[in-house]
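Dock protoporphyrin IX containing FE; give full complex structure.
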Amino acid sequence: MVLGGAVSLVLIFFLSFLVFLSAWGSIKKWGKMPPGPTPLPFIGNILQLRPNDVLNSFRKLHNKYGSVYLVYFGTQPVVVLNGYDAVKEALIDNADVFGERAMVSGFRKFFSEYGIIPSNGERWKQLRRFALMTMRNFGMGKRSIEERIQEEAHFLMKEFRKTKCLPFDPTFYFSRSVSNIICSIVFGNRFDYEDEAFLKLLNLQSQTSKLADSPLAQLFINFPHIMQYIPGPHLRLIENIKHLKEFVKERMKIHQESLDPNCPRDFIDCFLIKMEKEKQNMASEFNDDNLVMSSLNLFIAGTETTSSTLRYAFLILQKYPEIAEKVMEEIDHVIGQDRVPAVEDRSKMPYTDAVIHEIQRFADIVPLNVPHAVSQDTEFRGYIIPKGTMVFPLLTTVLKDPLQFKNPYSFDPGHFLDELGAFKKNDAFMPFSAGKRICLGEGLARMELFLFFTFILQNFTLGTTKDPKDIDLSSALHSGNRPRPYQLCVHPRR
Ligand code: HEM
């Protein structure tokens, strides 16, 4: 038995070595490769890309190798792009070539090939176009998305009032409100904040994000074939995704039973109607698998990102109360206290707009971006990148590019204001990425951030729970950026 195990291990190692040599060889034969640390067989550059310090590892490699470098995730070569110029040149100037999606092997295990996020080609085109159009139509329908957010903000204000000026952890307050917006678009209804199924769903999701950040999960994402046999909390990731899929499948069934084709209620209804229309079309991508995974994509991509940004926002405001004061002054001046904030107010509120942009830049919620790939052999900045090579256009290096922002590591709304106090655009503001794959929910997220942010500061002042100088704005994660846990305290303004 022991001997058998040892022989299998040697065999696996040998085979991996061959795969590594072929990957290395296939890149090398093309000519000039980007520079990068020498990989080891099988484990690639794991010594340089430490799973417990991913962001810092990338930062060090950027300092050493410059704006384009090559690393190996196991046997998988990855071209890493750094800084506004390189990322823009790839994602915007060469959008078609750099617009393919790649998936780190462990993620494929969770998300399969279905849905908007992992797909490419005809499938991606059909699903993305459909999702954008459906979300737009719901924006123009009986009740606009803006109205849905305003209604949800009222519920959030009610919850905030219940805290009676006592400190509380805002995490679930923000995630329930933000999640309800995407639930109402995808599933057709918002949930009561105490609804058990809803709380279970949110718990599952936040647990999944935390698990995905653990060093073992980082290893699992890169080496799923081995890590799936090693016990540990990372295995719960698969279980969690299974539960999330089951939740969506259940909703799909309920929708099928109550569907009125003349009166679609939400994204799932629209998808079911499209499935029926295209059932004779063999090339149609409108099927059960794509429905479940696209709905799940919208739900996962649309909840954690926006609610974490809001959570970061109010920690930042606690550290800089003078900035919160100035935003409140602008709210009082433009909106007042007699009506609710609306999206069209944003253009008249340059300071608030600049603060929200700066929050997104500073919070840098998706620092590594989602992996891309090149759709054809391509020459980029003097290097050859073969078709299919994975590419990481690192958003953190754009949002913190010292050539684009005066104080990249400080919180400074001045990054988005001119000398006269008018809003100043900056093309390096790319928290939603850029090009063909730019975040599909950008419009929705920006609307949510503006409305929730202004609703809260129109209705409450922020109490102090800690001396501002002791508030730590650094990230609580290894592989992403999330605020450290904190307590919020709000006092009604009227
Ligand atoms: C502050 C909030 C958000 C941030 C910072 C954010 C950021 C991102 C980023 C960086 C990407 C990867 C783009 C790329 O591959 O180049 C992405 C993709 C995506 N996002 Fe968002 N996002 C946010 C909110 C949302 C919301 C509310 C939705 C839901 C409607 C959403 C749905 C998606 C989808 C479906 C994709 C995949 C697009 C594709 O592959 O074509 N996101 N997002």
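Observed: The longest strand covers residues 68-73.
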